[in-house]
Write a structure and sequence with these properties.
Elements (H helix, E strand, L loop, with lengths): L1 H23 L2 H16 L2 E3 L2 E5 L3 E10 L7 E10 L1 H5 L3 E9 L2 E9 L3 E12 L6 H5 L3 E14 L7 E13 L3 E3 L2 E3 L2 E13 L2 E11 L2 E10 L8 E10 L1 H6 L1 H7 L12 E8 L3 E5 L3
Antiparallel strand pairs: 1-3, 2-3, 3-4, 4-5, 5-6, 6-7, 7-8, 8-9, 9-12, 10-11, 12-13, 13-14, 14-15, 15-16, 16-17
Length: about 290
């Protein structure tokens, strides 16, 4: 009985200590510190309305705003639940997992950082792009439709050529609304259809075998490679992007057909207009290339 009493007193002390720590911990100061560190690491503007504890190893962030310097509006997240991964800390690294509701779907992310590499695992299910606050302004593309993602990537921070992993991306009923732009060029409203893309990363190179977008107003093919580099701005691309509007879409949009006549040098015998995109991700260089 005496042993049970001692165990009970120790348990009560630990419980009281944890509760007291949660009640008195300066969570607002921690919120500001995390925002500053994220901003310094990414170059983005980071803000949050509040931060509070969630069980023993987690925090709940509300009103999270993320905005890169070029964005007209930030990405907005009503709630993010993040939790420390104790095993990573015990082995000398850093690990965190996060869950957040996103566009009527959800996103789970796990990040583990060791001495030389960072592993990112992300899974998104049922994300309605049009319901993601700030997405259209953030990307310049008023997209709608449902998106799923399954990614497992290991990035070598010292030598990007050692990075590896796999990314699976699928989308259904994708549409581009009015007001879309790519590189400041306006894009008409389009039904984009469906995609089911798979990308492997080996020796720092993202392999893109012929990926397709079908079932909408335009057929799109994408193939090539992306060579990862550190910093990210030095990452280079060697891609071929091909598109072919459907006859029905051209009949309904005579202006588009007239505009396409100005780029006939990019049109192949199969009706696809093809452009090669090379250079860095920061300064891509497109030029016509018939296939």
């Amino acid at each position: 009985m005496k042993i049970l009493r001692i165990i009970g007193l120790v348990a009560f002390f630990l419980f009281s200590f944890v509760v007291g720590l949660y009640l008195t911990f300066p969570w607002n100061a921690l919120k500001d510190r995390i925002a500053i560190q994220l901003a310094e690491a990414t170059g983005w503007e980071v803000e949050a309305t509040s931060l509070e504890p969630s069980w023993l190893t987690g925090v709940r962030i509300q009103g999270l705003k993320l905005a890169p310097p070029e964005a007209d509006e930030p990405l907005l997240f009503d709630e993010v639940v993040a939790r420390a991964r104790l095993l990573s800390f015990l082995t000398g690294g850093m690990g965190v997992s996060a869950w957040l509701p996103l566009g009527q779907g959800e996103l789970d992310v796990t990040l583990a950082r060791g001495s030389d590499e960072t592993t990112v695992r992300a899974k998104a299910q049922g994300v309605e792009l049009a319901m993601v606050p700030g997405f259209a302004a953030f990307t310049g593309l008023p997209l709608s439709g449902q998106l799923d993602l399954d990614a497992d990537v290991t990035l070598d921070r010292q030598d990007a050529a050692k990075s590896s992993g796999r990314i699976e991306l699928s989308g259904s009923d994708l549409e581009l609304g009015e007001g879309g732009k790519v590189a400041n060029f306006p894009i008409p409203a389009l039904r984009l259809g469906n995609l089911d893309w798979e990308m492997d990363i080996e020796d720092g190179k993202v392999e893109l075998p012929q990926q397709q977008l079908r079932g909408g107003d335009v057929d799109v093919d994408l193939e090539g490679t992306v060579d990862l580099a550190t910093p990210v701005e030095r990452t280079t691309m060697n891609l071929n992007v091909s598109f072919r509007p459907t006859p029905e879409y051209l009949q309904e949009n005579g202006l588009i057909e007239a505009l396409l006549n100005n780029i006939n040098r990019a049109k192949g015998s199969d009706g696809f207009y093809t452009y090669a995109i090379t250079g860095s991700v920061k300064h891509p260089r497109p030029f016509p290339r018939r296939r």
